[in-house]
Amino acid sequence: MKLSFIKNISNNEEYRVTNFKRKTEDTIINIIIPNKKNIYSFLMIILAIVILSSHIKVNAYYNNNNNNNNGNNNNNNFYNILNLNLNNDKLVEQQEQQQEQIKLYSKIKIINTVIESDGVDIVFNNSVSFKNLAYLSVSEYITIPIGLIQIDLYDSKSKKHLEFKRFQIENDTDYTLITTGIFKKQEEQKQEEDNKNNSNNNNSDEDIDDDGSNYSITILSDNFNFPSLKKRTTLRFIHCSADVRVGVDFSLVNAATLFSNVEYIGDRNHMRSKSFGASTNFISIPKSNPYQVFIHETDNEKKQLTLPENLHPIYDSPCTISFLLIGSIDNPKYPLQIFSIIYPLPSIHASQFSEKQHLLSNNYQFNNNNLKQQQQQQQQQQQQQQQPILQQQQQQQKQQQQQQQQQPIQQQPNIPSSTSPSSTTFLKFSIAVLSFVLLALLSVV
């Protein structure tokens, strides 16, 4: 019995051992030689790992691109802000330049015809003075602001105040300021005042007004309402002789009278009858023929005040000629004669009539004796003022060029970033389709 029991036990142990060996062998065989189900599960695990890794990589790539895009966008925004600021600065500069061009200024030239004087000073608005203007001094056009303006006349030597006037300057108008009169010394003036005081009781108010002030300041408009033609000359006549208080005619020898019954511009009756800026009308005559002109009393050609003078209007460029009756009768130092002024002068370039010469904003002094030197100094000052402006413009142009060169370099990294959102969405969609197909296959199997 005991032997049979021992055998059974040994048999059972052997059976267990053999079964364990078989199971281990089967598992090893199944692992080494998998069946169909194991193959599908193995493939699913591999696909899941690939999908996860690709999804992680795609998200990392997308996040990096977004960070780069944000950085580039910030840089682009910064440079856009700079460009906007520069454009705004340019607009402001252009507006300021346009405002400077649109500034309400007019132009005026000065003619001094006061005789028996060593020189006169003309002061505008008690600030800017034109000093020591000699007899027959003629200035170039100088800009003045529009509005009410006060003009004072002084003797250069004694600084005595001779006359003052107020005028309303209109916009975009050319004017001529003419000073007229006969300067009298203090002794002569005292004698005249005494004579006037003695005769005041016998004279009427009209006689007092006629004798009036000896000096006058007159502003005439230089604008005319017809075009300047090369084949014609525009001219006018102005009576500036304080010693001739009658109307005169400006005539051609053996021909027509061009201007008739022209009164002295400093006469008070004339100033009352004429509005501000009024003068004899401009006329236009052909340039082809030479003329002889003279001045005589109105309606009396035999009583000539000046000898005939030749007039040859042969200037090539369009110009305006003003003829002035100046001087005094029976005065060899200041004879009665015709004085002609041409504007613009053929020898003077138009750049000298600059709008930047603001008369009432600078302490500018004018002296007829050194007019050319002062014109050269003005040109040098203008060049010196323009140099820093030109340098600033060149610097701005260089900065703009540098910015334009930097912008395309900074925009190059943005090229792939523009395609990144569409590519990532396509990858996600493709991964989702593949996973759906694999699940369908697994369910079928």
From TrEMBL:
- Taking every annotated instance into account, which residue ranges of this chain make up the domain DUF4397? 106-198
Q: Where is this region: Disordered?
A: 186-210
Cell membrane as a keyword of this entry, yes or no, is no
Bias (Basic and acidic residues): 186-196
Q: What InterPro entries does the database record attribute to this sequence?
A: DUF4397 (IPR025510)
Residue ranges annotated as transmembrane are: 39-56
Name of the protein described by the UniProt record: DUF4397 domain-containing protein
Upper taxonomic classification of the species?
Eukaryota, Amoebozoa, Evosea, Eumycetozoa, Dictyostelia
